[in-house]
Amino acid sequence: QTCPAHTEVFQRMAKQECYFINGTEKVRFVERLIYNRMEDVRFDSDVGRFVGFTPAGEKWAQDLNNNPQWMEYKRGQADTYCRHNYVGVTPFSVERRVHSSPSQSIP
Question: Does the keyword DNA repair apply (predicted)?
Fold first, then answer.
């Protein structure tokens, strides 16, 4: 008797995002570490440290936050990764604005 073949797929992904406000006046860098569609840990330059969202992510965040050289590197990513690439990505980026609808008065 044979067993059916089992195939398992695991997905690991890192996603880096840059947010620009008023050109490069205010820049925010966010890096998300995702495993099997679940965000485990995130670095946000506005927060200045890693934050875990799962038990494993909390442990990884603690380990990463306790590495001074790595944290110095990550905190610099808004400049070295985002600002440095601003001119190259600007033609392809999407500018998002909040549009308010005009108010209507009732006679």
Answer: no
